[in-house]
Design a protein that fits this description.
Chain lengths: 361, 349
Amino acid sequence: MQHDIVPTPGLSDTGLPGEPAPPVGLRERLPWVFRWETVLLLIVVVIGIIGGSASPEFLTSYNLFNLGLSNGEIAIMALPMTLIIISGEIDLSVSSTLGMSSCLLGFLWARHWPMIAIFVVIAVVGLAAGAFNGLLITRLGLPSLAVTIGTLTLYAGVAQILLGPNTVANFPSAYTNLGVNAVPGTDGAVSYSALIFVVLAIIFGVVLHATGVGRSIYAMGASSEAALFAGIRVKRVKTVLFMISGLVCSFAGVLYTFRLSTSVANNGVGLELDVVAIVLVGGVSIFGGKGSVPGVVLGVLAFAGIQNALLLTNFNQEASGIVAGGLLLVSVFLPNAASMGRWAATRYRLRASQPQLRDSQ
Amino acid sequence: MTAEVLRREPPQAPIDTSERGLAERVFRIRESGIVVVLVLFVAVTAGLQHRFLSASNIQFVLVNTVIFALLALGETMVVVSRNVDLSVGSVLGMSAYLSANLFGRHPGIPIPVVFLVGLGIGLGWGIVNGLVVAAGRVPSLVVTLASLYIIRGIDILIVGGGMVTANTLPGSFVDIPKETVLGIPYVAIAVAVVVAIGAYYLRSFRSGRDLYAIGSNPDAARLAGIPIGRRVFMSFAVSGAIAGVAGVLWAAQYGTVDSTAGTGYELTVVTAVVVGGVAIFGGSGSAVGAALGALLLATINSALYVLGISSFWDQAIAGFLLIFAITLDRIISVRLTEALRLRSARRAA
């Protein structure tokens, strides 16, 4: 593919005189139709319709509440992951940061620390965990995939050292109620974790899509070197992204603990791949530089909706990975197939209209 | 570049040169670091607790290494070509269940046939992965993440709530990991031979070398005429087949197989491979190193147990070791490149 002619929009209407203007197709007039986000929105609507018709339970506020509740932490962790993957890195340690924070909460609560002090410690540890990732990746130049597989194991190990085989479950109900009750005034449909996700999604979305920092994240994902030469502090921004990820994930750990009212060493094990899958389903390129927060929000809805719809239709819910994995494949396949098809079509057009290109190959 | 520098050793001090050449050659072997760590670990643990070197404990460690060393061989082939196979845990799980289930369904089925079935299941999934990665031009991380979910999901549908229990398996099957010669388990010898063959293939065969070329620089490899798609496809097929065989061994070792067999193995295997000196972005590393990585992880596991340290420290140490390994590797390679650059600059001057 490398030596193929890359059809740039300017190619066909530059030098050659007398060439007809390229036809304005649907793609040029309605570009949003061709976005993955649009396809995803359709998928979400279809899931809603199928789910709603298959089970009257699906669109009730009680079910929506549960849907938001059981996916809240994963959804929250997907937001910093979105920014990190767009910047060209990956953070697999999210789930064990969650687990570590959950164990820290239990560990300190069992030692009668005041809740406020525990929150401060958890926030600091989360930031430190993220900074450790970020510094190893940016300052030593190590691949983030390897580093965060290492810290995935390391932080999960710290969680195990903290609690061992013990379980802490005597959290005050004032806090655990946050995990199981709905936000007042929402007709019982919105859990606190869902609300927090929405708020964070707006913040992350604004930062990514409407600020200079957001543009620089895209730039470094597209080309780290070019971004550096353009004066972007690539290392600093990436380190900060990992620190934010650490902070948000440790916060998700607190939510997770209060929702289940338990702090145990294996909290959150294996969630990292769910988080990555959601982000990729949301249209973020694993190579960085592409993706959007609205896409990831739709990815969350698709992922959670499928699992929930399958649950209500008595399909073995643990096997819902088949559908989730299929969606993940489609999300990378479809844009690829579309662009391959477009390339082939453009090449055919170019060759037909400009025979000399055939000889120059 | 390395070979060129070595050939240009100064003629005025021949004896010195050959010694330094040897020392250098030893240090240049990426696996030497992990061997040192392994030896240190064994020496310290054995010094503290003699039981560590008992025949039964060595057997225990080797049997525990076998499955991960096998998986690490397949993973190495995939990782050196700048890909990754995250589906090995799921493939292992499905193969373990389906192959062990054969004994209950067809009593008296020969054990080699069961191994072939496991291999076939793994090969099938490996071919699917390889086709999608090579023909679909989709990043392997995404493809195998998807197939990790899909294969596990299908496995769960097949298994349902059931499980295979050890009493439905023939004695000769569950005894496979227990049979020893001179105190060494047969399976460990068999896997060592397989790893050696795999390492030799990667090192000395054209198609094996091609994987390294693809991993170092895919564009250059394409321009050099290497059939990238075919090679990558093959590496996934082999990785899948190996995971399938590992699944049968898993069933023999643990006896009880349900739908969770092998869950989470993918990241442990990648850890073993990277600790063993295989670069995560391809182009360097060896199958022997990866197997040693698996051996080191199993040794740590057992050392903690023997020393009476809670196994809850296990994960933290493995994680620390992985970070330590890649950091050290990075520092050494930066220093080495710098030293070589300075030396060739001096020679040229």
